[in-house]
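Below is how a single chain appears once it has passed through the pipeline. First comes the sequence as given, then the structure the pipeline wrote out for it. We keep one example in the README because the format questions we get most often are answered faster by looking than by reading.
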Amino acid sequence: MTVNGVRESRELSVDASLHLLGTIGFGRVAFSRYALPAIRPVSHAVVDDQLVLYADSATTSSLDRQVVAYEVDTIDHETSLGWCVIVTGIADTVRDQHEILHYQQFLPERTVGAGDRVTRILPDIVTGIEYVGSEDIER
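Resulting structure:
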């Protein structure tokens, strides 16, 4: 809980950010569709230092060879404490069946739909921010 509502933010290292990213199985991908910004929720896994997205073909067909941003967060609605990680990189549709099967094993079966496609993002920029209360700052 924050003291007197005081909340501070601190930047996370790339390693810490990628670790947190791996603790959550879904997030939001931001991309351009018909020259307009679009954001869609998708499932993901971190595999071999790459971000692998699983989404319906309508979403993933718009991602291929585009620079995208991917955001994951866990922020408490009452205290506003938590963290946010954003990965930016070029999205690449995975077409090789062996690679697709390899990546799918890292995601719970319930999140892989029959029409879903696999998209890989090699992170170019990784940023993370942690929102902490004043009592956590002194530690």
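The longest strand covers residues 116-133.

See the next section for the split statistics.
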